[in-house]
Amino acid sequence: MTASKRQVEFDYAKTIAIIFMVIIHVIEEISAVDLDVLPSGFWENFIQFGAGPLAAPMFVFAMGVGMVLSRHQEPIQLFKRGVKLWIVAMALNICRNVIPDLIACLISGTAPVWDTLRYDLFNIDILHFSGLAFMLTALFRKLKVPVLALVPIGIIMQAVGNELSLAFRPTGIGEILLSYIFNTGGDLSCFPLLLWYATLTIGMLAGTLLQKYKDNLDRIYKIGFYGGSALLIGYVAACHYYELDIRFLHALYENAFYKQTFFHFLYNTLIVMIELSLFYFISKRVKKDIAFVDFCGKNLTTIYVVQWLIIGWISSIRDVLHFELGLELSVAIGVAIVGVSALITRLLPRIKW
Q1: How far apart are CA 222 and CA 281, in angstroms?
Q2: Residue 35 phi, psi (nearest 5)
Q3: Phi and psi (nearest 5°) for 351?
Q4: 36-73 pLDDT, tens per residue?
Q5: CA-closest candidate to residue 195, choices 108, 287, 111, 262
Q6: Cα(62)–Cα(131) distance, integer angstroms
Q7: Which of 3, 56, 47 is nearest to 265 (CA)?
Q8: Which pTM value belongs to this model?
Q9: Which of 161, 221, 228, 349 is the least buried, fewest Cβ under 10 Å from its Cβ?
Q10: Bridge partners of residue 325, in order along the sequence
Q11: In terms of Cα–Cα distance, which of 47, 48, 53, 38 is closest to 253?
């Protein structure tokens, strides 16, 4: 990943991210698990925590690192990649949701429901965010905004996004378009640009540090681990003192996880720092590359697209056959889908997103 060698710790983190992402997608789309309450018990909290800071924030953080370390950093290259990712995201919405749901309607003899099709087509996934983030970063790169300045810009963007989320509740076309920018209060705004861009900027800053101190990474990751751990302990203790329920920072209850705030940003950043530091030192002790980890690191986006296609079609079949899964079976099926998605990805030609 650096100019000299690939940073294996990111491959480990991406592997963990895709496993938890798939499991939580199965739980969201297919299971009978009640997501309208805060998680309780060890396993529910473990899964939603893993699908929280260890998943999407890591995905976005790693994307920011990649923007700095990639050989394709020209504004026009970043912009074109952003457009490509947005097109892929829209195509994924159609192929994973719209088409199978229409087929399910034909099989069951029911008429399509507009609210369902609206969500199917216009739900804003992390790939939509990625597309817009690449385009915005291309603009910042064109304006020669330094990476260090992007972090406060991202934090201010998030603050503005939170205020807009409180002040506006657009409907119709306005909701569809503005859901790309901030949380509009409906079900479309999973990854609005203003709320998630700060995480990408901190990834870009990390990529800059990794590049600058590539000959002294042990020290960088020691600081990341011990400093991140100390700050996280203080953060969690402060939440406990002020009776702020830490579960709201990773739970799916009332879409709390998708409504990113500065509190989420700090929480996610500290956990990502600790995770990457741990995997850096683990990877130094593991002398042999783990093929599956290496494969996931290099093909994360393709695996992500494939798993959504599988889950989308299973969800439509579920709507016809009316079956639902418990938590344990959802986890098992999620892990199986990770394996199947990786196998399908291996059989496909290498796709450059």
Answers
A1: 9
A2: -95, 5
A3: -105, 125
A4: 899 999 999 999 999 999 999 999 999 999 999 888 88
A5: 262
A6: 15
A7: 56
A8: 0.93
A9: 349
A10: 31
A11: 38
